[in-house]
User: Which sequence fits this backbone?
């Protein structure tokens, strides 16, 4: 299935497009990313699980099961520099675990980047009911927040689960 991130966080048309392709492997969700590369600085440290990745150039996908009293969801963040962050949450903005190691490879080619992630099934909600995907880039006043499905409000807040789309896309 394909997910396009092609609007601003609040629903205006964007000048760029990020594409995600998702498919199931035997033991994992495979996420393929194709995105513009803006040349933002790389996160510090070696590639791998990295806290605070949302402060850098990144593509994110949230996969949610909201059928219980508190939503359970997984946030996967992927950087063009090989860094990644996977958080499991129970309740909005309430992580129960983070910095999970996954297979993630990324390559920058001029003004584009691509990557492939394998997210093990045990890091995902048992049943996915909703999703959203985001792309972030830029520094300071030039910071840009894009969404597959807008999350309106006063400022970008990617944990507004009520604005997520039904799964599957």
Assistant:
């Amino acid at each position: 299935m394909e997910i396009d991130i092609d609007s601003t966080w609040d629903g205006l048309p964007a000048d760029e497009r990020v594409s995600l392709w998702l498919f199931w492997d035997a033991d994992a969700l495979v996420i393929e990313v194709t995105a513009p590369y803006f040349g933002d600085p790389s996160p510090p440290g070696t590639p791998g699980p990295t806290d605070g990745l949302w402060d850098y150039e990144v593509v994110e996908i949230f996969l949610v099961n909201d059928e219980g009293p508190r939503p359970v969801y997984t946030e996967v963040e992927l950087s063009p520099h090989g860094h990644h962050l996977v958080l499991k949450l129970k309740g909005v903005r309430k992580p129960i675990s983070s910095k999970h190691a996954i297979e993630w490879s990324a390559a920058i080619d001029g003004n584009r980047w691509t990557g492939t992630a394998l997210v093990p099934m045990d890091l995902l909600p048992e049943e996915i009911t909703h999703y959203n995907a985001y792309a972030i880039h830029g520094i300071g006043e030039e910071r840009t927040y894009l969404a597959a499905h807008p999350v309106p409000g006063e400022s970008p807040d990617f944990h507004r689960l009520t604005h997520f789309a039904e799964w599957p896309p």
